[in-house]
Design a protein that fits this description.
763 residues, Immunoglobulin-like, Pectate Lyase C-like, 4 domains, 9-stranded parallel sheet, 6 helices, 39% strand, disordered N terminus, PEL
Length: 763
């Protein structure tokens, strides 16, 4: 059967969806019988009792799966990603299983109360767990009419969960039950956040397991103000911090890098929280440029921030996932200022507070400002007004927007300024009253394989095409949608549109549409935009970044499958699509950009059904079977050494003085983008002691005029080479002696040291 499943998966990687499925004989999930589970590409599942199935046939040519039953046949035309057979519960007298499913790097089981039980122990088996391994008690909760347990940090695979009732501190094995066949998938890590990253983003490895030595902190309304955790605040200094905001604030000292997963349980409202770091947004996550290895994630389907959002600033390797955000004061999520390698995904983002005008639905839902190497993916935006601002005239670049569900959201999907490397793909634009992607201020955007359903203007370029032909007011209106900003340029490939008011592609040689166009549409992904194609206002051409050899590797979803995948079981938003549901009336809401009062009232009145958490909310836990990071960030002391200074030294051999500041150099060296470097002014200094003889190569940013430095008070006299495209100046090698302590200071003029390379003399 495993070979059959693998053959199905391999075949379906080559065969797309064909004709419509014909499914009329599937039954409900039943844990008391053996069942075949058909998993569709959307993540949805169909179940068949094995006693009813005579055969399951695979057509190798088409990928068609036929389920043959005594009562007829069901046909899946190229829409199946896997088949799993699940055994019935072995213990009819044990804990009653209500539901159990695998999701993204997690699996859950819902079960009824067991007579006399005071608590429960839940075990997981599969993946890295060869035997049943107990999960943290905090992951087991009561919702009054049922209990639920979530196993987290799972790599892709098939899992089993075992529920054991506990009476008088003793496990009742006779009451235990095991549910199997739970299919877990990995989160999709395609996108710029992981491009050139040296490890997984956040507290997790790229395979979904916790990083080695990761700590796990559980936060609910019961302990958000009182939870404690030891945090590093100096080179050899540690403090016990109290409250979630104070714990996170310790990262501002710039030295705490131990992986930490903060797991949110249930509903957190403003009154439940300590004083928050951002008065306008809420919970502030702020670092000092170090790799923070921090994940803030929800447990299950109901983790929610109500009345506040999250501000991420000066962070690297930070992840937000599986959370709901509603009725926030300003932005829901804001990646704001000096962030790199950050990732926000599988979030449900609802209305913010009504402040009237263009903030009637709150301010930005998920804005990205001052950020590089970022992915915004798999999020569900519920009737947002201003969805995704990309740059408020600040520097933002290397950002991916993919597999988001823009569910009746109005505009800014995203609204882009300046960014030269912006990838928007596989998003579901679902009834958008104003516009989809907006390009301004010299930006370059690749818009690929998106599905636009009743999106008024799928793509707009400021001051040309649909933006001034139809965008605001009458046909004679020339103001445009984007405050008369210069245009940015869009390359579009293989997008599907239906129900749009206007889309004007570029037409070579045409009097109007060679100037007034919404995008340059290509027939093949690798086609480049010609140099003569430029925006009407600003004269911006497309840089063809998407065809460069160093563009990241990714696997896009076929365009016609985007709605099913994005809205499917493993799709956008929280686990199980969250605990808050609202159905939009397309007939009235596709074109409506006003607040839906009924939705707003329901969000304001939202309450949690969580009754009890079985575990100790004062405890800090660790992974019972930690997995080393498969892609660690080494600090070699032998062989060649490279140290960058993108907010802090990347190698522990090097130290900077306490008075040293960092400055924006923004260079690209050997395909790697580095934003910050050490500012060698009157206060700046870099010290190190090599343990071997090396030749040292200094890489300086051209953003400052300095082209030499002082090495142990002697001004360097070697020449260098300027790389204009990379914006750096590289000095010729300087000989260093083993065991000697070196101090690098300001030379003839202030400089920015972006990188130091030590090349071993006698390797």
């Amino acid at each position: 059967m495993k070979k059959f499943l693998l053959s199905v998966c391999a075949l379906l990687s080559m065969v797309g969806a064909q004709a419509q499925d014909v499914v009329t004989h599937a039954v409900a999930r039943d844990f008391n019988v053996n069942q075949a589970q058909i998993i569709q590409t959307s993540g949805d599942k169909k179940y068949y009792n094995t006693t009813d199935v005579s055969a399951i046939d695979l057509d190798q040519a088409t990928g068609c799966i036929t389920v043959n039953l005594g009562t007829g046949t069901d046909v899946f035309n190229g829409s199946v990603s896997g088949i799993v057979f699940t055994k019935k519960l072995s213990n009819a007298q044990g804990v009653q299983i209500i539901d159990a499913q695998g999701w993204l790097e997690s699996a859950f089981v819902k079960f009824a109360d067991y007579a006399g039980a005071t608590t429960y122990h839940v075990y997981v088996k599969g993946g890295k767990y060869a035997d049943f391994t107990r999960i943290d008690d905090q992951l087991i909760r009561s919702y009054g009419t049922y209990n639920r347990a979530d196993a987290m940090g799972l790599k892709a695979g098939e899992y089993a969960l075992k529920v054991v009732p506990v009476i008088d501190d003793t496990e009742v094995e006779a009451g235990a039950n095991v549910v199997s066949g739970l299919v877990v998938r990995n989160y999709n890590r395609d996108g710029y956040a992981h491009h050139q990253a040296t490890a997984g983003i956040g507290a997790y490895n790229n395979d979904g397991t916790l990083k080695s030595d990761a700590r796990v902190l559980y936060v609910s309304k019961a302990n958000a103000k009182t939870v404690t955790l030891e945090m590093q605040v100096g080179s050899n200094k540690y403090e016990t911090r109290t409250g979630i905001q104070s714990i996170i604030q310790a990262y501002e000292k710039g030295v705490e890098t131990r992986p930490l997963a903060i797991r949110i349980i249930g509903l957190l409202k403003m009154d439940d929280m300590p004083t928050l770091g951002s008065s306008s947004i809420g919970l502030q996550v702020k670092g000092k440029g170090q790799n923070m290895n921090l994940t803030i994630e929800g447990v299950g389907s109901d983790a929610t921030f109500h009345g506040f959002g999250v501000l991420v600033r000066a962070c690297r390797y930070v992840e937000l996932r599986n959370l709901g955000v509603m009725m926030h004061e300003e932005d829901g999520i804001s990646f704001d200022t000096d962030n790199e390698h950050v990732w926000g995904h599988n979030l449900d983002i609802f209305y913010g507070r009504n402040h009237g005008g263009d903030k009637a639905k709150g301010d930005g839902s998920f804005d990205v400002k001052g950020t590089f190497y970022c992915t915004v993916s798999d999020n569900h935006f519920w009737d947002s007004g201003k969805c995704n601002l990309n740059s408020n005239d600040d520097e933002v670049d290397y950002v991916t927007y993919r597999h988001n569900w823009y569910d009746h959201s109005d505009s800014r999907h995203p609204r882009v300024r300046k960014s030269k490397h912006l990838h928007v793909y596989n998003n579901y634009f679902d009834g958008n009253a104003k516009y989809g992607v907006g390009a301004t201020t010299g930006s370059c955007i690749f818009v690929e394989k998106n599905y636009f359903r009743n999106c008024k203007y799928p793509m707009l370029i400021s001051k040309q095409g649909s933006d001034i032909h139809n965008g605001v007011g009458s046909a004679a209106d020339t103001k445009g949608t984007f405050s008369s900003e210069d245009g940015g340029i869009i390359k579009a490939y293989d997008n599907f549109m239906t129900g749009q008011k206007s889309f004007e592609p570029y037409v070579a040689g045409h009097t109007t549409y060679s100037k007034h166009f919404d995008a340059y549409v290509v027939e093949n992904r690798g086609d480049q935009v010609p140099a003569e194609v430029v925006t009407l206002q600003g004269g911006t051409g497309y840089n063809n970044f998407d065809t460069d050899a160093d563009f990241y590797t990714y696997t896009p979803t076929d365009t016609q499958d985007v709605p099913a995948v994005v809205t499917g079981w493993y799709g956008a938003g929280r686990c199980e699509h969250g605990d808050f549901q609202y159905t939009f009336n397309n007939a009235t809401e596709d074109a409506n950009y006003d607040v839906i009062l009924d939705l707003s009232n329901k969000l304001e009145a939202y309450i949690s059904s969580l009754v009890k958490i079985y575990g100790d909310m004062g405890a800090v836990t660790a992974d019972p079977d930690p997995t080393p990071d498969p892609t660690p960030d080494p600090e070699p002391q032998e062989g060649n050494i490279i140290c960058t200074f993108d907010g802090s030294p990347s190698n522990s051999m090097f130290t900077v003085s306490s008075t040293t500041a960092y400055g924006d150099g923004k260079i690209t060296y050997d395909g790697t983008y580095l934003k910050k470097g050490v500012k060698l002014d009157s206060k700046g200094a870099i010290c190190f002691t090599p343990q071997k003889d090396y030749n040292m190569i200094l890489v300086l940013a051209t953003a400052k005029s300095g082209r030499d430095v002082k090495l142990n008070d002697v001004k360097t006299t070697v020449s260098g080479t300027e790389n204009t495209a990379g914006a750096y100046y590289e000095l010729q090698p300087i000989a260093l002696t083993s065991g000697t302590t070196y101090t690098i200071l300001k030379g003839s003029a202030e400089s920015l040291v972006m990188m130091i390379k030590l090349v071993e003399v006698n390797p």
